[in-house]
């Protein structure tokens, strides 16, 4: 799979999955533009940008305009920025629902909206991060599953909207990612069943690549052995 000379924005680029996605894009020949809400050095080969609050539409639009001005276009977008919370409704608060909506849905909406003006005439690709756990609700998962279900519906709706522009929009639906925080939270789990960030990044690169041109509106489970 080749992304030779493709300009790909990765949001949430300083997190574990963001770093893996940037590394996979660079390995495939693309230019990974690292966007995050905090300052920091991205993975080797990725291009750093100033910190950007993706929940703020005008700030996001300005950041993407600056990227386009420097690189000439945007060929792809990977919406990784987001968050998780486990909270039963009886013990929780509406603030958790608002926060997860902002982190998971609003960031993807703002980034996608900001990128649309800069895709070339021949089209482009958007890959969102949904969740296998949002296909069906579970104990303590209501707010998170609802927000990620929003990402799923956004993916399908944008795919239909952007077909005439040849912009493919898909989402990967991972189960549990094998990250240090998840291992800390679940020390007795069998980590071999989880999804390695590098493996999920390879699926993301496939969806960004010309090999996936016939795919749009897909919600692709990536669940390891769970």
Automatic annotation (TrEMBL):
The taxonomy runs: Bacteria, Pseudomonadati, Pseudomonadota, Gammaproteobacteria, Cellvibrionales
Query: Which GO BP terms, alphabetically?
Result: fatty acid elongation
Q: Which domain of life is it from?
A: Bacteria
GO molecular-function terms, A-Z: oxidoreductase activity, acting on the CH-OH group of donors, NAD or NADP as acceptor
Identify the stretch annotated as signal peptide in this record: none
| UniProt organism field | Gammaproteobacteria bacterium LSUCC0057
What PROSITE patterns does the database record attribute to this sequence? ADH_SHORT
Spell out the Pfam families in the cross-references.
Answer: adh_short
Q: Which InterPro entries match?
A: NAD(P)-bd_dom_sf (IPR036291), Sc_DH/Rdtase_CS (IPR020904), SDR_fam (IPR002347)
Please report which protein family the annotation says this sequence is part of: Belongs to the short-chain dehydrogenases/reductases (SDR) family.
Q: What is this protein called?
A: SDR family NAD(P)-dependent oxidoreductase
